[in-house]
Sequence to fold (265 residues):
Amino acid sequence: MTAQNRTALVTGASAGIGAAFARLLASEGYSLLLVARRVERLEEIAAELAAAHGVRCEVFAADLNDPAAPAAIMAFAQKQGLAIDVLINNAGLSGKTAFGDTPWSALAGEIQLMVTALTELCHRVLPGMRERGWGRIINLSSLAAFSPPGASLLYTGIKSYVLNISQSLDMELKPQGIHVTALCPGFTRSEFHNVMGTRDEADKLPGILWQEAEDVVREGWEAVMKGRPVCVPGTVNKLIASSVRPLPVALQYHLGNRLNPFRDA
Ligand SMILES: NC(=O)c1ccc[n+]([C@@H]2O[C@H](COP(=O)([O-])OP(=O)(O)OC[C@H]3O[C@@H](n4cnc5c(N)ncnc54)[C@H](OP(=O)(O)O)[C@@H]3O)[C@@H](O)[C@H]2O)c1
Fold:
């Protein structure tokens, strides 16, 4: 089977890394199912990619904070006759307010979006991938999973979960032809910091820390195709990840507490 007969489901495809994944996969000939809340954005991207690459490109508006969304996405795919061979679990954001000052509904929404929906979608695409003996799953973790935790942020814990579960899934599923990769970008140009409300602080960080979404996506896709369970894209990010991990936990705690650039944002 070639990419021309395969379909990729990309969540959070209306912006940033997800839109870059949609562009890369369309250029390789994959049919696409694009998911996010902003359906007009998805429709624009779908029209662009269908015209540029002649691929089938469907869109589905879903709020992944809604526990019913993963089932609804898969029901739509089935109705359209789309078998999901590639899953890019990308939709995500970071809250910024302190844990104790954030309503539970917002915290629960972050967990639903980046933990429960991500895990459920992995589970829901599996039967088809197993039947066909081929599947590729990329789960968006973050360099934050390798970094010391920042005060009050759920984000580091969530992305650590994604890094961990992706490796477990890869161990279980690789013998069945299904590769799973945790993609762990550092600072990547996208709408992420606009949504988080940290654009000004982010823009003050040195340029060397930043990557373009297209570069992150290219490296992530190469990693999953080669069967690498973890991908930290970019030389600077690799250096950061490999130098933080060996530090004693007490020192990581101290660094996390002192060096979070968004603590007072
Ligand atoms: N940018 C970075 O520096 C960076 C670094 C490490 C990891 N990451 C991770 O990379 C992933 C993509 O982030 P990005 O940088 O591309 O951010 P972005 O430009 O803000 O894009 C986020 C995407 O997620 C979608 N999304 C957010 N909440 C959603 C919801 N409730 N339901 C459905 N879709 C939702 C958004 O679509 P709608 O608003 O249209 O729903 C958008 O398409 C995230 O998981 C993020 O944690 C980013």
In short: The chain has a mean pLDDT of 94. The chain has one domain: 3-259. The CA atoms of residues 150 and 213 lie 24 Å apart.
